[in-house]
What we know:
It is a single chain. The strands form 3 sheets. An 8-stranded mixed β-sheet has the order 1-5-6-11-10-9-7-8. The protein has helices at 16-35, 49-52, 57-62, 85-95, 105-114, 159-174, 187-196, 203-210, 213-227, 232-242, 248-258, 263-278, 346-356, 376-391, 405-414, 425-430, 448-456, and strands at 39-40, 46-48, 66-68, 96-100, 123-132, 144-153, 180-186, 287-291, 305-311, 320-325, 339-345, 367-371, 396-398, 417-422, 432-437, 443-447. By secondary structure, it is an alpha+beta fold.
Amino acid sequence: MAQKPSTPKGTRDFGPQVMSKREFIVDTLKSVFRKYGYQPLETPSMEFLSVLAGKYGEEGDQLIFKIINSGDYLSKVNGIDFADPELFKKLLPKICKKALRYDLTVPFARYAAMNHNELNLPFKRYQIQPVWRADRPQKGRYREFYQCDCDVIGSDALINDAELIAIYDEAFTALGFPAIRLLFNNRKILAGIAEIVGSIELLAPICMAIDKLDKIGEERVKEELAVRGIIDSAQEAIFRIITFSGTNQEKLAFLADEFAESEIGLSGVEEMKEVLSLLQYFNLSITEVIVDISLARGLEYYTGSIYEVKAVGVDYGSLGGGGRYDDLTGIFGVNGMSGVGISFGADRIFDLMEMLDLFPEQSKASITAILMNFGGVGFVASLKFLKQLRAEGISAEIYPEHTKMRKQFKFADRRNATYSISIGSDEAAAGTVKLKNMETGEQQELPIDEAIELLKSS
């Protein structure tokens, strides 16, 4: 019995029409990254589990796809109940030493630590590769998906933070979005909140709980905080602060008053003020920057600025996010390499652009010319013309079989060809070609040189 072809849940194939649009997104982002001085980088799909573990918080670590060691490791653990989480945790170091990449930031920090003596600091890199998460697949959320990151490492300067916001603005403008909203906060502000409610040691779980506010609501977040040992009065204080509304300036003034006794909180306020001040030099086109005190981003390595981007006027998840990490390379024994970066969620961006019909016509998979196959003398002349077209950089192909013209024209139409080209024995003798505009149906017969010029301008 034949096997039914399928893909694992949370993964997808991408056909030519989809890939053409995805490449439009990637090419657009690359052009912006390069304009700002970022250089390309790739890292392996798998990392040592020890590199990834402990960097994404308790819940994030559970979503890491772990790779069982090759060889006969499992033969030594027969009879073990792998459903027992505690037992599996003990066995994990013995049977799994590698894992699939969870994000691009930690592998970048590992790369920077390994190559810090050769890097010209500050080092700007962009990276566009797939990542994997053992998450529950749902709309806009996949187990395998692409991230498009750009980071600066080796600099504390907040001009980098402001520049990354400008990159978001320019990239989404180039992709055709009419408006985006960038939510902006600072982990030092969240640390200040934890400090003034007497729970600074619980900063990480507080951030993870607050990070779910949009998804599960205030009551369930309070339940999570209670489980972590945050008492009712502290919960009320947290929500009084993170739900404060007003202009950006009013929010920062409110926080400055609240943090009169919190040095780290005041430091976060000052950093946000500086970034907002620097943004005046970047002339943002479509981006509204909003100070969002409730923005937490649950990844444990963030220490300063944090960002999240959403489209305006549509109920959809975040399209990107990022933040500053002061000493991520310190985990790998190299201290003092502060970094900051942002990520674009290519898959979510694609889905939303499809929904909003933002893809330009030229992003569709197409070809300039399909040459008809008349056989005989016309076929030979078509092959010679095909060679000339490709030498001029014109995308073209010839229908391989000599068959009914109706079938060949139908193929050209489905291929989204701009022109179909016919060279029969009469055209071959005259040194001309017949071109049919596949959209308008207009036909014309031109000398070869004129035909090439027309196709080059298409």
